[in-house]
Amino acid sequence: MTREYESSDGGKERFVDSQFLVFVNRILAFVISGVYVCVTRQPQHRAPLYKYCYCSFSNIMSSWCQYEALKYVSFPTQVLAKASKIIPVMLMGKIVSRKKYEYYEYVTAVVMSIGMTLFLLGSETDHGRSTMTTFSGVIILASYMAFDSFTSNWQGELFTRYRMTSMQMMCGVNLFSCVFTAVSLMQQGGFVHSFYFTLRNPDFMFDILLLSLTSATGQLFIFYTIAKFGPIAFVIMMTIRQGLAILLSCVVYHHSIALFGVCGIFLVFCAIFLRIYCSQRMKQVKRYQRLPSIAHKV
To answer: Which of 12-16, 97-101, 160-164, 211-215 has the weakest average pLDDT?
Structure first.
């Protein structure tokens, strides 16, 4: 959307309709997953089709709230929201799936959020995007976190209850995403504008196809991760990915990292290792508790 396309008459223009980009991304992902489901052997699909619309709608709304919130919240507020996503995901898991978490999971989630906040504040270079936070911005940001947390937890619940494959989930979610975005584009006349823009700038077609292909590939990993490891593991991976991306950017472009930023990333990895250690210890304790009962039965 920041690239200037040169039309046949020599004029330069930018494509500004992000909703059309989302539509193309979703429809390509739907086609790829639909073809794969049709040509390969899949387990019987038992989930009611309408249940996909909930996480599809929440996914669209979380994307909209994320972009809108940037206009109304300050930089520290944005950082706090980015860093503490694991906490609302855990809270939403208790609401959606009635999940129970151990005390160490809450502790490591808080430590990880604090560490990511320190790291992002100590390494981000663009601090001047927004200088104040409005009440409406806080509401939109809270809505983004709620919708985003609901999406992964609802998908995890569907995986657990109906045992569908990640490809079946991808197909169902993107089906409703195509419908929702298509209705919105038709109401706003976005299809006509995008069609004429593509005619004037043929290079734009190649760019959106490349963007949609990479987006669909990313969805494959997202749905597989949620199906295999659950929403908590997924959001932890995304948090680490964000931190590593910023760290790599600092190394490549020679950006400086403040001391509290280094302490923050140290806290994040300490929390991750503590979570893994406690998880393994809990599994060993449960295994030892089962041994007497098994021996008694024998």
So the answer is: 12-16
Instruction: Give dist(CA 247, CA 265) in Å, integer.
Output: 9
Kindly list the distances between the CA atom of residue 167 and the CA atoms of 113, 180, 246, in Å, as whole numbers in the listed order: 32, 20, 31
CA distance 85 to 145: 7
Please check the confidence at residue 176 and state whether its pLDDT lies above 90: yes
Q: Give the Å distances, CA to CA, from 269 to 72, 121, 235, 274.
A: 32, 17, 15, 8
pLDDT at 124 over 60: no
Letter for the amino acid at 98? Answer: R
CA angle 10, 13, 18 (to 5 degrees): 150
* DSSP state letters, 131-159: ----HHHHHHHHHHHHHHHHHHHHHHHHH
